[in-house]
Amino acid sequence: MSAATTEASPVSVRSAADRLRELFARPGVVRIAGAHNPLGARLAERAGFDGVWSSGLEVSASQGVPDTDILTMSELLGVAASMAAAVDVPVVADCDAGYGNAHNVMNMIRRYEAAGIAAVSIEDKRFPKVNSFIPGRQELAPVGEFCGKLAAAKEAQRHPGLMVIARIEALIAGWGMDEALRRGEAYAKAGADAVLIHAKGASPEPVLQFLREWQLPTPVVVVPTTYHTITATELGEAGAKLVIYANHGLRAGITAVDDTFRTILRHDRTTGVEDRIAPLATVFDLQGMATQKRHEAEFITPFESRARAAVVPGAEEPSAHTAVLLDRQTAELRRSGIESVSLATSGDLPAQRPQDTAVLAGHTDAAGAVLELPASQSGATLLLSSDAYVQSEPLTRLLAAGGDVTVLADVAVGRHRADAVPLHLDSRAHEGRRLSTGDGSRVTGVGGQGACGEFAGAAVFSPKGFAALREAADKRRANGSTATLADLLTDLVEGGHQVGAVEIGSGWMELRTVADAEHAAGLLTGQGEVR
Fold first, then answer.
1. Which of 44, 110, 314, 516 is most open to solvent, judged by the fewest CB atoms within 10 Å of its CB?
2. Which 3 state secondary structure label does DSSP give 352?
3. What is the SS3 assignment for 180?
4. What confidence tens digit (pLDDT) does each residue in 84-142 have?
5. Paired sense of beta strands 91-94 and 119-123, if any
6. DSSP type of residue 271
7. What is the rounded CA–CA span in Å between residue 291 and residue 11?
């Protein structure tokens, strides 16, 4: 067994319940934060909390209903399970009054345990409960009835690690400290792994008094929602083991979203809020896109059976014809035998793309688009600049050329525009036609006088060649500069990489201006041929 396997094995076999019990066993107070979806759970985990509280209040509020047992167990379980699947820290689930009698509690325990929940909290109220901070009805269940629920819960669990927390609502209901202590002791004897003493005053004194008078070894959980001036450390020193910040993520989100939406309407644009809201990169990070890209490169890209293609940003101005041209270009790529097509352009994209066409959004330079594409393990990668339209015949020839890096080179005499990317080739001209002197044409230089061709906007790369291209793109990014596909190819040539050329005289069109795009769209949707 390798060292890596040895290190990873304990993590793989330890359940969330085991991890929570380890937290309870170590010195010091344990802190967890409330959430109502996996994104909130990941934010709590990222901030450094020891675990996540699947808050009944937060989940109910997120669904726009009161926290009064309106949502079903299945609805609340679905949220808790999704959070447990999204984070590595343990999730403690707020299970209200157990969703019914002891039969319901036993069913609840089995299902929450199977979903990977580390602990469940059940409160000693009559079903249906009312949120503890709502004035009015706060009906407590008889002690014997609730002890029966706790005993049933412990009987139903299959994994000894699952913790059952008995939530004491005597102080909430106004029944006093003696009743709170009496109930807590009964619940501990019935099998509760911890007791939660709940209070809703501004002072922490009632909770501190409970902790002073609590004599059993059963751990105590507290929720300082209203008595927020005391620190978690102080509560831990007083005897509390677990501190739950139950609903602060929801409340913070309400304030921030409300302010953001009002600011947008007030200013009629989003500029005023952009510097105080999370960038999309943060969203992608929280979604786990980096992991997905790594898995894609490891498990999907190696099994490519055909070449892939990406249309990367060029130097053209976006126009009303961009969508039409991208659709037609995708069709030409399909005809050349490519099924996987990605788009990364600064122009307007069509409203809908084929299912196997990915959009690499957020890039306005070819270097960024190249770095967004995962490394290719097998098969070729064809890159096409968005300021060129290339038909399937030259694309097919390009894909068949072989070599690590090969470009399309237009060698038609007298047709090159002033803004073309000149190519120096090692082929020779004879009466207006060119012949290669070896196994095929090679690019010997880019730019300058004496060029005999121009870059026709497309290049194909073997996995080795694409790796070299990514390295060139990474250097551009590191220097803070953008780059076109032609710029990256220039870097490769100047870096000593061998670049082949497929020489053509027709079958493509430059799209450097809006007029070019308009003309090309007219040719493609009406009569005429691309030159």
1. 110
2. coil
3. helix
4. 999 999 999 999 999 999 999 999 999 999 999 999 999 999 988 999 988 888 999 99
5. parallel
6. G
7. 18
Most confident residue range from 104-108, 300-304, 347-351: 104-108
The backbone torsions φ and ψ at residue 433, rounded to the nearest 5 degrees and listed phi first, read: -120, 160
Q: Are strands 433-435 and 441-446 parallel, antiparallel or unpaired?
A: unpaired
Closest among 12, 441, 476, 39 to 278, alpha carbons compared: 39
Question: Spelled out in words, what is the top-level CATH class assigned to the domain 289-525?
Answer: alpha beta
Q: How many residues does the chain have?
A: 531
**Residue ranges of the chain assigned to CATH 3.90.550.10:** 289-525
Q: For 139-144, which contacts have Cβ atoms below 8 Å and span 24 or more sequence positions?
A: 139/173, 140/169, 140/170, 140/173, 140/175, 141/97, 143/182, 143/183, 143/186
What is the helix (H) or strand (E) element at residue 265, kind and residue range?
helix 248-267
Spatial separation of the C-alpha atoms in residues 490 and 502, rounded to whole Å: 17
Question: 3-state DSSP call for residue 164?
Answer: strand
**Locate tokens 């490891």: which residue?**
298
DSSP 278-336: --HHHHHHHHTHHHHHHHIIIIIGGG--S-EEEEE--SPPP-TTHHHHHHHHHHHHHHT
For residue 160, whether the previous peptide bond is cis, meaning omega lies within 30 degrees of 0, is no
End-to-end CA distance of the chain: 64
Quick check: 165 pLDDT over 90? yes
Per residue in 364-393, pLDDT (tens digit) is: 578 888 887 877 767 888 898 888 889 999
The sign one gets for the Cα dihedral 97, 98, 100, 102 is negative
From the options 3.90.1720.10, 3.40.120.10, 3.30.450.70, 3.20.20.60, give the CATH code of 29-246. Answer: 3.20.20.60
Spatial separation of the C-alpha atoms in residues 358 and 520, rounded to whole Å: 24
What b-and-e string marks burial along 378-387, b requiring 16 or more CB atoms within 10 Å of the CB? ebbbbbbbbb
Q: Given a cut of 80, is residue 82 above it in pLDDT? A: yes
Burial code (b: 16+ CB inside 10 Å, e: under 16) for 309-336 equals: bbbbbbbbeebebbbbbbebbbebbbeb
CA distance 493 to 349: 32
Catalytic one of 67, 96, 365, 404 = 67
Tokens at 430, concatenated: 């004879």
- Every domain of the chain with CATH number 3.20.20.60 lies at 29-246
CB atoms within 10 A of CB 244: 27
Residue 356 annotated in active site: no
* Strand-pair category, 405-410 with 453-461: antiparallel
> Quick one: angle between helices 248-267 and 38-47, nearest 10?
110
